[in-house]
Each structure stands twice: as C-alpha cells, then as structure tokens.
C-alpha cells in the first residue's frame, strides 16, 4: 500500500478518519500493518500490501477463488489479444486523453482485466474488489506504479463521496445483494461533473427461465472445487457440441438460452484453445454466484436519478450498458 492513498482512505461505514500503524514497510510501500478508526474502535489489516476492509468467507468467495484459478484467461497482455481493451472502449469509451492523471475507481476489478487498460492510459487508478480476487489483480497490475488496490465491499467503499473523476463497474452490479444500492453507491463516489459507466446483466420477462438460472440453485451450493470438476468433466463433450450448435441460425440462439454452457463461437481472434479455457471459466462464473439479479434499463435509470446523476446514455439496454455524468 502506497502512503498516497492515506490522504483519502476513510472508515467505510462512518467515513471517519483512519490512523495507520505500520508493521512492515519497504521503501514507500506498507506491506503489513493496520488501519485504526479511533471513533468506531474498528481495525482493518493491511496484508501483502493491500488494505483489507472485507470479512473472510463473504458472498464473493467463489469469485475470489475463480479469479485466482483463472487469472490470466482474460488479461490482454497474457493472451496476446485485445478483447478487454475493445470491450472497455465500447462500453466506457474513455481514452488516454480522458483518463491521464485523473482519479479513477474500478469498482469490482476481479483479476484486473479492465484496470490494466485504465492504468496503461495513465489513470490514478484505485482498483477495488470484495473478494480475494484482489490478490490476482495485484499480480496483474504489479507493473504499474499508478495503481492502488483495496479489498472492500462495493456497498461500503472506504472513500469520501465525490472523490473520483471517473468510476466504472463492469459485470459486477448484478452479483451484489442490492444491485440498485450498488449503483447509487458507485455514483456517489464520483465528483460533480465526473463520469461513470456501468455494464449490468439486463433482465427481460423470460430471463430467469434460462438454463443457468434453473440450474444455479443446485450449483451455487456445491463446493467450488466440486463445481469446477463437474464442468471440466462435461466440457470435452459439451464444448464441441455447442461449438456446432451455437452457430446455427435461430437454433443457436435458443440453445444458448437453454444450455448453461458458455462458448463464444462468434468471438473473432480467439483460438480454439483460448475459447475452451474461457468456456470453462465463464460456465463456472455463470453457475457459482450466490447472487445474480439483472436489472432493466428503467430500474437503472431510477437508481441513477436517486444518485443525483445529471445525464446518462444507454449504449445498450440488454445488457444494460450506460455511461453518464454526475
């Protein structure tokens, strides 16, 4: 943890000041220690250079395990591709001119696939995740000296309201216990005139009838290891079948809705091996979350109004992809 983040870290519930107690420090990086809130009496550890405002075994446990198992699968510098950069450009649309030297919040960074894009564009980036995926992100982002990492809940962010110039949250909101509250919380982190971006699973009347939602009441109760073993055991058969089936017009669309197998047959630039690894990862990602509550565009708009956002534009309504200004 770099000392520069101490200038704006606060206790996540009361937003009271925090006092640093150092146990181990290397040059300008605090590797071990604690942050103490004298008002509430709470103490938050700094472990492996990351301040931790998260309880062990919270609802994001499967995501932490997932991203530490599959850290490199979606990282452009690891795969040699540009899919994460292209997705960030399509959904957020912020360039180096926009982000350079600006304070930027990545709310729910996972293994750091989008954080690496923002950091490479010169952002003063704070990457947050509630799960142990923050440790995978630390590995992904270790080459950047303009990044700070924090383990914290998206519902209780340890920053003062209105601190950031930009904030984005891509593919996370639906996996929280209160998606609408999460939208409001992230927007509140943005200063007046600042920008936000969200990508959220979109809900239609029939969404919850899809195969993954029908199967998940069982799979989310399985151990992470058992679920992954089950997916790896069926994938040698399921992958080639869906590789053909998903390409068939009309039939493929129905099959993708019914079958809980992720296979991105129409993704350009992916080798078959890379698509196979991502199929295993995203099938696990689809079947393991404790929460999955898609929003409609109208529900998202109401949340943005409640958060005092001034304007926003939907790049897509299903999924919900929205960029705007507070």
How would you describe this structure to a colleague?
The chain contains twelve helices and eleven strands. By secondary structure, it is of the alpha/beta class. The protein has a seven-stranded mixed β-sheet with strand order 7-6-5-8-9-11-10, sandwiched between helices. A four-stranded antiparallel β-sheet has the order 1-2-3-4, with no helix packed on it. Helix 9 (224-245) packs across helix 11. The longest helix is centred in the last third of the chain and has 22 residues, at 224-245.
The residue-averaged pLDDT reads 96
Kindly report the spatial arrangement of strands forming the biggest sheet.
7-6-5-8-9-11-10
Order of helices and strands: EEEEHHHHEHEHEEHEHHHHHEE
What portion of residues is helical? 25-40%
**Major sheet, described briefly?**
7 strands, mixed
Shape field? globular
Low-confidence stretches: none
- Classify the secondary structure makeup into a structural class: alpha/beta
Calculate the terminal CA-CA distance, rounded to whole Å.
29 Å
Strand fraction equals: 15-25%
What is the CA-based Rg, rounded? 20 Å
DSSP, total strands: 11
Helical segment count: 12
Secondary-structure blueprint of this entry?
Layout: E1 19-26, E2 29-36, E3 43-47, E4 50-51, H1 61-69, H2 76-79, H3 83-91, H4 96-99, E5 103-107, H5 113-120, E6 124-129, H6 133-140, E7 147-151, E8 164-170, H7 179-188, E9 190-200, H8 211-219, H9 224-245, H10 251-258, H11 272-287, H12 297-306, E10 311-316, E11 320-325
Parallel strand pairs: 5-6, 5-8, 6-7, 8-9
Antiparallel strand pairs: 1-2, 2-3, 3-4, 9-11, 10-11
Helix pairs in contact: 1-6, 7-12, 9-11
């Amino acid at each position: 943890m770099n000392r520069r983040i101490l200038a704006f870290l606060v206790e996540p519930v009361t937003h009271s000041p925090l006092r640093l107690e150092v146990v181990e420090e290397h040059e300008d990086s605090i590797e071990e220690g604690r942050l103490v809130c004298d008002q509430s009496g709470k103490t938050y550890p700094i472990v492996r250079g990351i301040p931790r405002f998260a309880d062990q075994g919270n609802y994001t446990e499967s995501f932490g395990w997932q991203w530490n198992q599959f850290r490199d699968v979606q990282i452009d510098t690891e795969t040699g591709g540009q899919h994460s950069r292209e997705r960030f450009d399509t959904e957020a649309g912020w360039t180096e001119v926009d982000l350079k030297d600006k304070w930027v919040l990545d709310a729910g960074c996972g293994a750091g696939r989008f954080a690496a894009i923002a950091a490479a564009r010169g952002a003063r980036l704070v990457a947050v995740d509630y799960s142990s995926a923050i440790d995978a992100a630390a590995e992904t982002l270790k080459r950047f000296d303009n990044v700070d990492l924090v383990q914290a809940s998206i519902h209780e962010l340890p920053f003062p309201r209105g601190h950031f110039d930009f904030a984005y949250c891509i593919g996370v909101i639906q996996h929280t216990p209160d998606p609408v509250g999460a939208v409001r919380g992230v927007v509140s982190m943005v200063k007046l005139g600042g920008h936000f971006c969200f990508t959220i699973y979109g809900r239609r009347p029939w969404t919850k009838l899809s195969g993954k939602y029908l199967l998940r009441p069982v799979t989310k109760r399985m151990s992470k290891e058992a679920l992954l073993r089950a997916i790896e055991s069926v994938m040698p058969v399921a992958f080639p079948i869906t590789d053909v089936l998903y390409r068939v017009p009309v039939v493929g669309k129905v099959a993708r809705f019914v079958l809980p197998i992720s296979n991105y047959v129409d993704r350009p630039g992916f080798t078959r091996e890379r698509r196979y690894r991502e199929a295993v990862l995203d099938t696990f990602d689809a079947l393991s979350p404790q929460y999955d509550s898609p929003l409609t565009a109208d529900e998202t708009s109401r949340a943005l109004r409640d958060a005092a956002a001034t304007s926003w534009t939907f790049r897509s309504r299903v999924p919900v992809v929205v960029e705007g200004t507070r």
